[in-house]
């Protein structure tokens, strides 16, 4: 469906790689290099194949050229990650970039300044994309996390140069494909988190794709309320009750089993170690709030998952940031990790707080795949076509005397 770098002939070619090096930083110092380290695989592979590797990325949300968002601070950690010097140009188009690229030798790696210093980037301006495309012969997109945005460097370029997915993008698309597009059945999805209102499209998409939809977190309260249960002081979007009932009806029509909590951990306040107790969802006290799914609910979830081959997970079962309201999330996550290890369950998770909830449960690296893509992962769960991914399936309009890849266009 999409081309990978296996299909590209890159020797001696200028390869523009859109990476996601948007690392967290404080006071001009990078606080976590994970994104840089993970991007290294594609860059070093292309360099080893004799490409001139030119890295495009964004950093922060600059409004035009703002020096505090300069990517110069990325040069050193990137050089460390790829194990060789990284050349630098302080603009991503124009004479500076052209001069630098003209001096590159096969196997060299260069980083260009923030693509978002040009407002045309986020407008997917054709002229800007064209200027970028003039710097390369081939385009590789390795930034799944920005693929839900149709920007010049994430989408526009794919229409102007022979394009392929980098290794990170490939891993993400393969994992997501196995989880929802062509999964081993039965498939379950866990959707937790705070509110129904932020996950409507996601729930609507999942009910028609999965066999079990397990609902947790604050949003489960809205579903319980919609079924006529009292939820006391719990987070609950009462105005969404009709919507929740519609989702339940849609699930029924699609043959999707909805799994809701049967018991809950309740407390008088949203606070660490607040005095708490377990109650049935039929008898939540008026002056208390649900802060986690109870042990019987976690058991029920595990029981349902026991018959499944694939699990997609977004959102915690409770207020996992404050103890002990992380118990249900931890119990199910640890069970799913063990099941993954046994080769009995394919587990794909991501989006928002899910990565930190799984890290807290100690299983972040024990799932089949944990996506750190945030918004792009959620849009994928919503069933949307991500423009950056869709564009990789498009044959470039201008192929001239050969598109540079090993395919037949
Ligand atoms: P989301 O970003 O939608 O995945 O929501 C994650 C947030 O939902 C976390 O900050 C949790 O603390 C919160 N959350 C989960 N369950 C509850 C609950 N029962 N009551 C209040 N907040 C919750």
Give the overall silhouette: elongated
Number of continuous helical runs: 13
User: How confident overall, as mean pLDDT?
Assistant: 94
Could you say which structural class the secondary elements and strand pairing correspond to? alpha/beta
CATH architecture classification of the largest domain: 3-Layer(aba) Sandwich
CATH C-level name of the largest domain: Alpha Beta
CATH topology of the largest domain: Rossmann fold
Helix content: 25-40%
Parts with pLDDT < 50 across at least 5 consecutive residues: 398-409
- CATH superfamily annotation of the largest domain: Phosphoglycerate kinase, N-terminal domain
Q: Compute the gyration radius: what is it?
A: 24 Å
Question: What fraction of residues sit in β-strands?
Answer: 15-25%
Number of strands: 17
The H-and-E topology, N to C, reads as EEEHEHEHEHEEHEHEHHEEEEHEHEHEHH
What's the arrangement of strands in the largest beta sheet? Answer: 5-6-4-1-7-8
Total individual domains: 2
Notable features of this structure?
6-stranded parallel β-sheet; 2 domains; binds adenosine monophosphate; Rossmann fold; disordered C terminus; 409 residues; 17% strand; alpha/beta
Report on the architecture of this protein.
The structure is a single chain. The chain has 409 residues and is an alpha/beta fold. The protein folds into two domains: 5-165, 3-Layer(aba) Sandwich (Rossmann fold); 173-373, Phosphoglycerate kinase, N-terminal domain (Rossmann fold), CATH 3.40.50.1260. 32% of the residues lie in helices and 17% in strands. It has helices at 34-48, 75-82, 95-102, 126-133, 167-181, 200-207, 217-226, 241-254, 295-305, 327-341, 354-360, 375-381, 387-390; strands at residues 14-18, 25-26, 29-30, 52-56, 86-89, 109-112, 138-141, 163-165, 187-191, 212-215, 257-259, 263-267, 276-280, 289-293, 310-314, 346-350, 369-371. Strands 5-6-4-1-7-8 form a six-stranded parallel β-sheet, with helices on both faces. A six-stranded parallel β-sheet has the order 11-10-9-15-16-17, with helices on both faces. Strands 13-12-14 form a three-stranded antiparallel β-sheet. Helix 1 packs across helix 2 (75-82), helix 6 packs parallel to helix 8 and helix 7 crosses helix 8 (241-254). Residues 398-409 have low confidence and may be disordered. Adenosine monophosphate binds next to helix 7 and strand 14.
């Amino acid at each position: 469906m999409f081309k990978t770098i296996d299909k590209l002939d890159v020797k001696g070619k200028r390869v523009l790689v859109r990476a996601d090096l948007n690392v967290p930083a404080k006071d001009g110092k990078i606080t976590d290099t994970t994104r840089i380290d993970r991007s290294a695989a594609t860059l070093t592979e292309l360099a080893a194949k004799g490409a001139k590797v030119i890295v495009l990325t964004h950093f922060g949300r600059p409004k035009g050229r703002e020096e505090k968002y300069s990517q110069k601070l990325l040069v050193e950690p990137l050089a460390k990650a790829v194990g060789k010097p990284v050349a630098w140009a302080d603009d991503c188009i124009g004479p500076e970039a052209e001069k630098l690229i003209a001096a590159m030798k096969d196997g060299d790696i260069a980083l260009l300044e923030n693509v978002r210093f040009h407002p045309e980037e986020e407008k997917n301006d054709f002229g800007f994309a064209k200027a970028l495309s003039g710097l390369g012969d081939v385009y590789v997109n390795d930034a799944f996390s920005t693929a839900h945005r149709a920007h010049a460097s994430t989408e526009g370029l794919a229409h102007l140069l022979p394009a392929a997915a980098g290794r990170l993008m490939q891993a993400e698309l393969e994992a997501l494909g196995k989880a929802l597009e062509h999964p081993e059945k039965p498939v379950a999805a866990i959707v937790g988190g705070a509110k129904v209102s932020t996950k409507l499209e996601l729930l609507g998409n999942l009910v028609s794709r999965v066999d079990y939809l397990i609902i947790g977190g604050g949003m489960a309260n809205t579903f319980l309320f919609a079924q006529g249960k009292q939820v006391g002081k719990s987070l609950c979007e009462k105005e969404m009750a009709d919507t929740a009932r519609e989702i339940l009806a849609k699930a029924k029509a699609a043959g999707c089993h909805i799994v809701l909590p049967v018991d809950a951990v309740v407390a008088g306040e949203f606070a660490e170690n607040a005095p708490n107790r377990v109650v049935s969802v039929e008898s939540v006290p008026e002056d208390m709030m649900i802060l986690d799914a109870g042990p019987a609910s976690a058991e029920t979830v595990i029981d349902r998952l026991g018959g499944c081959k694939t699990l997609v997970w977004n959102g915690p079962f409770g207020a996992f940031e404050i103890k002990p309201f992380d118990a249900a999330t931890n119990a199910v996550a640890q069970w799913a990790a063990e099941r993954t290890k046994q080769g009995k369950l394919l587990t794909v998770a991501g989006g928002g707080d899910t990565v930190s909830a799984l890290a807290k449960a100690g299983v972040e690296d024990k799932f089949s795949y944990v996506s750190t893509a945030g918004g792009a992962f959620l849009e994928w769960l919503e069933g949307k076509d991500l423009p950056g991914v869709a564009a990789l399936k498009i044959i470039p309009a201008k192929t001239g005397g050969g598109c540079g890849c090993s395919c037949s266009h």
